[in-house]
Amino acid sequence: MSTTARYALQDDRPTEDLEDHIIHFSGVSWGDYKRLLVMRGDHSAPRIAYLHGEVEIMSPSRTHEAVKSMIGCLIETWCLERDIAFSTVGSWTLKSKPKSRGAEPDESYIFGNPEAKRPHLAIEVVWTSGRIDKLAIYRKLGVAEVWYWRKGRIEPYCLRGERYVPVTASEVLPGLDLDLLSGFLDRPTTSEAMRGYRDALRRAP
User: Fold this and answer.
1) Closest CA to 20 of 55, 64, 52
2) Residue 141, C-beta contacts closer than 8 angstroms, at least 6 positions apart
3) pLDDT at 34
């Protein structure tokens, strides 16, 4: 069975022994949220999300990190092959006190002008169900597009006004075939995935 097939059958219900470790708190003030960020320091994990007094602290598993990094490397391969300027901004902490929201993507990218105030694309790997609603956070923070990876598939959402709508293709990276990209996520190594994807792109008309 391929890795992609195993992902599709994965039981993502939260259990005590699940690899991702997630804690939720309620009634958390904005000041307490900022103190959590200070205590965590300048690290990419644990990732902390805040939505109207609700806090989620998530320590990602090795598999979670491997999936998000693989997706990122394939995006970068596509951009290099298509001569698209990009900047990786990783788990950039995005927050707004007036909006009472804050979040850190698994991966995020700016395309074109590197001085943009928000990433154009945020990537979220859903390895465990029951997570905080990150779309509700990002929509008020102005992130143009969010990709959710769930059970081997990438589901893109684009911002329309103040809500996200599911779409069938990326709008910040027009022409990128998400099914083709996803097909290389089951490779045993990142380097093999990148080489295979690069070769497929070069064969494409």
Assistant:
1) 64
2) 94, 95, 96, 99, 101, 103, 118
3) 96
Give the separation between CA 120 and CA 141, rounded to whole angstroms: 11
* pTM, rounded to two decimals: 0.88
Determine the Cα–Cα distance for residues 118 and 23; give it in Å rounded to an integer: 27
Domain ranges for the chain, please list them: 3-203
Distance, in Å, from the CA atom of 70 to the CA atom of 100, rounded to the nearest integer, reads 32
The dihedral built from the CA positions of residue 180, 182, 185 and 190, taken in this order, carries a sign that is positive
Q: What is the CATH number of domain 3-203?
A: 3.90.1570
Instruction: Give pLDDT < 70 ranges for the chain.
Output: 1-18, 129-130
Half-sphere exposure of residue 11: CA atoms within 13 angstroms, side-chain side: 5
Strand pairing report for 145-150 and 121-126: parallel
Residue 77 to residue 14: CA distance in whole angstroms: 33
The DSSP output letter for 125 is E
Q: How many CB atoms lie within 10 A of CB 204?
A: 10
